[in-house]
Amino acid sequence: MGQAEEGLAALAKASAMRQRTGEQWYEAELYRLTGTLTLQSPVQCSTSQVAEAEACFLKAIEIARRQQAKSLELRAVMSVSRLWQQQGKREEALDRLSEIYGWFTEGFATKDLQEAKELLEELS
User: Which fold has domain 4-123?
Assistant: First the structure.
């Protein structure tokens, strides 16, 4: 909504609260959203910002896998796949997204899986 800096500040507060309370459930989503907002920052997106966002997405994937949170993993994989698509890494994006999408056996009417299918079609 054009308020990336405010969003990043809110996520920093949420992350601090997560660390204080020990709550880990949405840790992957916090990293994914941080990566997304980092790319949307009003400051011109630099190479370091792109690298930071990619690192956030990969950390989100790692955490989601460890927690066996496939929906959160799917979201993070879609985020990194979109970034890689913009960087010309279509094959890498397609491979990563195909792997997680293939895990699902139901729920294909959900928004996340519909968006994943559309992205797979774009990458193919």
Answer: 1.25.40
